[in-house]
Amino acid sequence: MKDLYSVIKNLMRTEKSTHLQPLNKYLFKVDTDATKIEIKKAVETVYKVKVDSVNTVNMPGKLKRVRYKAGYTSDWKKAIVTLKAGSKIDMTA
């Protein structure tokens, strides 16, 4: 089992994530090898909340060009975590 603090990379603050907050859903950038169970345990431990469900999406890297060379950014994994009613993550910090 992985270290719980290495599973979650960061809490994403995007326009989409702010629209999901009233629905008690939060977006996280997570380790590409992390499972839904590991993500659930990590969020519950780090943020001290109760998680209802976890959905994950593997995001492919984007094509980027620098002068005449083309390359790709790294692939990454996004987790959409739904919290139970009454739980909330403080995003002021």
TrEMBL record:
Signal peptide: none annotated. Keywords: Ribonucleoprotein, Ribosomal protein, RNA-binding, rRNA-binding. GO terms for cellular component: ribonucleoprotein complex; ribosome. One of its GO terms (molecular function) is rRNA binding. InterPro entries: Nucleotide-bd_a/b_plait_sf, Ribosomal_uL23-like, Ribosomal_uL23/eL15/eS24_sf, Ribosomal_uL23_CS. One of its GO terms (biological process) is translation. NCBIfam families: PRK05738.1-3, PRK05738.2-4. Belongs to the universal ribosomal protein uL23 family. One of the early assembly proteins it binds 23S rRNA. One of the proteins that surrounds the polypeptide exit tunnel on the outside of the ribosome. Forms the main docking site for trigger factor binding to the ribosome. Part of the 50S ribosomal subunit. Contacts protein L29, and trigger factor when it is bound to the ribosome. This is Large ribosomal subunit protein uL23. It comes from Candidatus Taenaricola geysiri. The lineage of its organism: Bacteria, Pseudomonadati, Candidatus Omnitrophota, Candidatus Taenaricola.
